[in-house]
Every structure is written in structure tokens, then in C-alpha cells.
Amino acid sequence: MTALWKLSFIVPYEAAENFSDALEAAIWPDVLAVSMTEAEPGSSPLVKTASEWNEVEAHGVWRVEALYAEEPEEDALHEIVARAEKESGAKAEGFRIEPMPDEDWVTRSLEGLEPVRAGRFFVYGSHDADKVPAGAIPLLVDAGQAFGTGHHETTAGCLEYISELVGTGVPLNVLDIGTGTGVLAIAVAKLTRVNVLASDIDPVAVTVTRANAKANGVGPFVTALPAKGFGNPGLRTRAPYDLILANILARPLVSLAPAFRAHLRPGGTLILSGTLRTQEPMVTSAMRMQGFKLVSRKPKGDWVTLRMEG
Fold first, then answer.
1. How far is Cα 20 from Cα 5, in angstroms, rounded to an integer?
2. Which residues span the domain enclosing 38?
3. What's the pLDDT tens digit per position in 93-103?
4. How many domains does the chain have?
5. Fewer CB within 10 A of the terminal residue: the chain, N end or C end?
6. Residue 24 CB-density burial (10 A; 0-12 exposed, 13-18 middle, 19+ buried)
7. Domain closes at, from 55, 83, 102
8. What single string gives the DSSP state of each residue in the chain?
9. Is residue 300 a contact partner of residue 268, using CB atoms and an 8 Å limit?
10. Which of 20-34, 63-77, 255-269, 272-286 is the least confident region?
11. Residue, of 164 and 208, whose pLDDT is higher
12. Both 193 and 299 in a single domain?
């Protein structure tokens, strides 16, 4: 039985929002949801966007997808897309309408996420609770609305550094900026049993972090706050930090370099990720200008996690 139908096509990033808005605004066919994702992550040139924080890593070619509760009229969708093409001056490629099987998509997505071993940590979803190996530090993180399940190379690199650098029971003043699911803050809290401060620009991520910390038995040891950079006074009053974790994006890291210097204690450690290998020189140069030195790096796929001190 078919429950959903999907429309998909590829457009230049600069025009993706025009097409998404057109599909959402259409009275008919009535769309359930529209999404925009990178069609070829890491393969296209970076583009300048309006948002310094959320979209600076956007690439040139994006896929627009729309879900419908019943089979949509192809002519009607072609008309909507044609209007968006005329308004944006961009061409939609690979126009396709296809049925989606009647399945529990949340369950299916969870089944596709295998547990991850990163240093001493074992990151798993609730569907794999029986797979936690003896001696590992378990981190329960289900796929959801926030980024950072531990499966991405950037998160895994940060967890490996935490495993190497943070001693069990050793009190540290730690900030996890751009926390996503809170997995890094939870990892530190499990080791130190000292309150870790976590922040994110997305209020959903803050809510998810609090829930995940509670689910992992460290609710009292993780404080999650909404913040863009160090904009929340709660982040500034806890400074200076012994360790700052920032798994965000390259250009926000660059813009935060002076703030890292101002809020990290002398000799403290920065763990920086969310950086493509091609962007590493840009990030390290910005940090060196603030007096930080590169101690080591963990390349994983197209990404790299950096350890800096200063």
C-alpha cells in the first residue's frame, strides 16, 4: 500500500528557497512537507549566503523534495515549478514523482544508524540497547530533530578527543558550543560528573540536549542554553573555560576566534570541528592570529577535527 508520494528535483542553491516556497504556497496539490538538502555535499563551490550562522556552508547544487498524501497531478506540479523557474531564472533538473512505501519512516531511519565506537564511547540508538559492549561508556542518542548523533565524522572526531583528553573524575570547566543533540556535553559529563555548559542557536537543539542528558543519567550535569556565539550572558559568566568544544561550521569558527581567546583560560584547549579539509587553512590561520597553536588533527573523510591550545 502506498501512503505517500514524493516530488524531487535539483536546482542551484540560490534558487532552492524560491522553489520550496512555491510548493508550500500552492493550494493544490496540498503538500505535507518540503525539504532542501545538498545534492552533492562537499563537491561544489561554497557560496555566500545571508545567514552567517546557519547557511554559510551551502553548496551550489541542492535537491528539493516535497511529500504528498496522495498521488499529485503531474501537470499541476509542472506548472508550479515552471512559475518558480520564471521568477528565479533557474532551471529545475531531474523532475521526478514517485511513490513512497507505507512504512514507519522514523523506525526505518533508526534501523539504518549502526552503533558507533569513538574512543571510550559507544554511541547507539534505543533500538540497539542490547549491543553496548562491556567496558564502553554508553551514549544513548536517537536520530531526531537536532544534529549530532555521533555518526558524522565531525562528531566522532570530537568524541575521540574527549576520550583522550578528559580524565575520569577530573573536574573541568567545559563549554560545548553548537551542541546539537548534546552528545559531546553528555560525554564530558559522564566522565567528569561536573556540570557542563552547552549552547545552541537552535532552541529545538537546546530542548533535545536537555532530554538526552536526562535519558543518559546526567541531567543535573548538563546545562543547555540558547545562544548565538557567546551572546547569552550565561556563557560569559562561566568563563574562563578549561575546554571549549565547537562542532559547528568553518566560517562561524573563524568569526568566533576572538571570543574563544576571551573566554578560554590561558593554556586551555579548543576542539574545533565541522570543517572540511579544504577549509582547514582558513580556520587554523584565524586561530593562530589569536595566539592559538595547532596541537593535532583528526582527518575523517572530507572532514577534519582540530585540537588547538593557547
1. 16
2. 2-102
3. 999 999 876 55
4. 2
5. N
6. exposed
7. 102
8. -EEEEEEEEEEEHHHHHHHHHHHHH-SSS-EEEEEEEESSTTTS-----S-TTTSTT--SEEEEEEEESSPPPHHHHHHHHHHHHHHH----EEEEEEEEES--HHHHHHHT---EEETTEEEE-GGGGGGPPTT-EEEE----SSS--S-SHHHHHHHHHHHHHPPTT----EEEES-TTSHHHHHHHHHH-S-EEEEESSHHHHHHHHHHHHHTT-GGGEEEEE-STT-SHHHHHTPSEEEEEEES-HHHHHHHHHHHHHHEEEEEEEEEEEEEGGGHHHHHHHHHTTT-EEEEEEEETTEEEEEEE-
9. no
10. 20-34
11. 164
12. yes
- 70-88 per-position pLDDT tens digit: 899 999 999 999 999 999 9
Asked if 189 and 280 sit in the same domain, the reply is: yes
pTM comes to 0.66
d(CA 104, CA 83) in angstroms, rounded, equals: 34
Residue 153: the pLDDT is 83
Q: What is the pLDDT of residues 226-261, one digit of tens each?
A: 998 999 999 999 999 999 999 988 888 999 999 999
Is residue 33 domain-resident?
yes
Sequence-distant (≥ 6) Cβ neighbours of residue 45 within 8 angstroms: 59, 60
